[in-house]
Amino acid sequence: MRPAMQFVDTANRFHSDIIVSNGQTDADGKSIMQMSMLAATCGTCLHLRAEGSDADQALQALRELVEVRMFGEPPP
Amino acid sequence: MEIKKGIAVSPGVSIGKSLIVDSEDYRIPRREIEPSQRVGEIQRVRNAFQEAIEELTSLERGQDEATGGHIKDIFAVHLRFLRDRSLRRRVTDSVQTESVTAEYAVSTVLREIASHFETNVKDTYISERAADIYDIERRLLRRLLGTKREDILHLKEEVIVVARQLSPTQTAGFNRDYVKGIASDAGGRTSHAAIVARSLGIPAVVALEDLTEVVRTNDRVIIDGNRGIVIVNPDEETIHQYEAYSREFVALEHKLDAIREKPATTRDGVRIRLLGNIEFPDESSLVLEKGGEGVGLYRTEFLYLNRSTEPVEQEQYEAYAEVARVFKNKPVVIRTFDLGADKYTQNQRPTPEPNPFLGLRSIRFCLQNLTMFKTQLRAILRASVLGQIKIMFPLITSIQELMQAKMIVHDVMEDLDEENIRYNRSIEIGAMIETPSAALTASTLARDADFFSIGTNDLTQYTLAVDRGNELVSPLYSAADPAVLRLIRMIIQDANKAKIDVSVCGETASEPEYVMLLLGMGIRTLSLTSPMIPEIKQVIRSVKIEDCNHLTRTVLAMNSERQISSYLRTAARKILPEAF
Questions:
Q1: What is the distance between the alpha carbons of residues B198 and B194, in angstroms, rounded to a whole number?
Q2: Which residue from B273, B302, B72, B85 is spatially nearest to B194, judged by alpha carbons?
């Protein structure tokens, strides 16, 4: 649950709408309920879409969290 | 205003604010609201979320980073759920579109999410998060239901407790100064709610089916434990009526309390013995308090019901010994297990019986489960040295059954002799007469029984072939039916001829309108639910046997139940107008 929490916290720093898709379902990247129901487990491919004034910065920050810092957790 | 009908299990009338007591895992029942109430309910949802956030924030802050880091994380996740606007919207949308209460919307939405985790998510780490969602649900519900479960222990104002079913733990914490009544969805005369209410002397109604769906905490409710009615949000007129009725009832109770010490003697000097019916050992004190002179019917099924293990001999012994010690040299009639037709025994069977009331029940059941039967008899016999214990067999239908049961008593006595265990060698053994066959052969049974006790409930059911629980035919159920009355008279006459004691322990013994008739037919001992003892004593003290005999002659000449009922009611009303 911690990664979902970090993701949502990051997303909520921006004004833009953030939509996360696993290919079947879209989820609001700012909603922990929707993000956790998306059930993205390790290795799931997610598509991120941001719409709004700070869309680029939002995507950059989320990419940083997921791909670079790996939620601050060691890889399995 | 809504009127719900249940079973009255403890008399009295109470008007007050309700307090819903639920177990925390209890599902919130669906309750629809008026469209105009939706705005208010949505506000309640928002407030509950807000309050839960505040509560959690301070809880989170209280956790030490080093030792409580993990808990802090959990709280942090819960907080994000509570702040999640799309979650809140899902709940408020549910209130809006389905017109349901805030509690119901919270419960269903969060349970949907939890079950999504449980069923659709393969990853066990995430699926186990369902527990977090249930925790959030409970937190919100605690805000919405207003009162925490523990609050029942810390009551500060008078309440009427409303519950689906009360557990022993919950009832153990009742404060008798504040709990003014009990109402429950489930339950029967032997439910915990009933027992506790009777021992506290507060009104109670059970088996109200869906009361918890109709009433909310702080709703005003009236509990009528005399008529088995609960009124939710009564109008002013009804409240006034009930306040007056309640005052009358209390006044009557006080008046009756005053005669507690006086004997149950008719105006022409005939002494009548009034005994109490009990189901649990702790009801003994109430029998004495109400002026009972012993126990005429100690039901022992409680030892088996509401539990999963067989009661061992020592446990039974203690239950019988406790009552024997309370009553000392006053009689205590212990009825052996009347099991078989009840849900408990039926559920234990590989296949349920198609017709349990005509099946393997009561003494028949005991005679086919000898180990169980002997264990009970051993426990009763061991306790028999402590007081005036008598044994009574239920549902005797023939002399063979009575003989067989008595033989088993003697077997157990021999076992006790061998082990040098003391018991009352001359213990009285009686038969409950509650089937037409027993009534018709009462003269034969009387030769082998030390006493008879007439069980009018089953006698009426079997004589008239009416199941009183079946509402399609229940109006046909009446102990005032000429067929039933003729059987009762026959039993009494045969008992008198054989010079053995005969008493009545069915419900008719607690109904004022039957008292004169039973006395007129020759009954001198009545066993009844203890709260009714003072009222029945009052009737006895107001009549003359001569008048009872006259009434009985008139009634026995009548051929219709309706005519008899109305005649009895009119006669009783003249004696005790307050009771009607």
A1: 6
A2: B302
Which among B371, B373, B372 is positioned nearest to B401, based on CA atoms?
Answer: B373
| Model pLDDT for residues B243-275, shown as the tens digit of each residue | 998 888 888 878 877 888 899 999 999 999 999
User: Is residue B28 domain-resident?
Assistant: no
Chain B residue nearest residue A9, CA to CA = B80
Residue at a domain's end among B205, B227, B251: B251
Residues B129 and B242 in one domain: no
For B465, other C-beta atoms within 10 Å of its C-beta total 10
Q: Do B469 and B430 lie in a common domain? A: yes
> Per the structure block, which two tokens stand in for A21?
């898709």
Same domain for B55 and B14: no
CATH of the domain at B86: 1.10.274.10
Chain B residues inside the 8 Å CB shell of A8: 80
**DSSP helix/strand/coil, B177:** coil
Q: Please report residues of A whose CB lies closer than 8 A to that of B87.
A: 31-33
Write down the pLDDT at residue B68.
Answer: 57
Are B108 and B155 in the same domain? no
Which tokens hold the place of B297?
């019917």
Question: Residue B468 is part of which domain span?
Answer: 259-579
How many structural domains does chain B have? 3
| Tokens linked to B223 | 């509990």
State residue B539 phi and psi, 5-degree precision: -60, -50
Q: Are residues B338 and B463 in the same domain?
A: yes
Give me the pLDDT at residue B389, please: 98
What distance in Å separates the CA atoms of residue B438 and residue B396, rounded to the nearest whole number? 6
What residues make up the domain containing A17?
A: 2-72
Looking at residue B471, its pLDDT comes to 67
Q: Do A34 and B126 touch (CB under 8 A)?
A: no
* For B76, nearest residue in chain A (alpha carbons): A5
Residues B295 and B329 in one domain: yes
- Assess whether B291 and B419 both reside in one domain: yes
From the list B76, B77, B126, the residue facing A41 with the nearest CB is: B126
Q: Contact B81/A5, CB-based, under 8 Å?
A: no
CA separation (Å) from B518 to B215, B456, B485, B486?
42, 11, 9, 12
- CATH number, domain containing residue A28: 3.30.1340.10
Is the CB of residue B129 less than 8 Å away from at least one CB of chain A?
yes
Q: For residues B270 and B481, give the distance between their C-alpha atoms in angstroms, rounded to a whole number.
A: 27
Task: Classify residue B546: in a domain, yes or no.
Answer: yes
B314 shares a domain with B291: yes
Give the distance from residue B117's alpha carbon to the nearest chain A alpha carbon, in angstroms. Answer: 7
B128 torsion bin: left (phi>0), alpha (psi -120 to 50), beta (else): alpha
Residue B141 is predicted with a pLDDT of 85
Look at B81 and A33 and tell me if their CB atoms are within 8 Å: yes
- Looking at B251, B274, B307, the residue that finishes a domain is B251
> Out of A4, A9, A37, whose CB is closest to B116?
A37
* Residues of B carrying an active site annotation: 192, 505
Pairing of strands B220-224, B429-433: unpaired
pLDDT digits (tens), chain A, 76 positions:
677 888 999 999 999 999 999 888 899 999 998 988 886 666 678 889 999 999 999 999 998 888 877 666 544 4
Using the Cβ of B73 and the Cβ atoms of chain A, whether some distance falls under 8 Å is answered with: yes
Computed over every residue of chain B, the mean pLDDT equals: 87
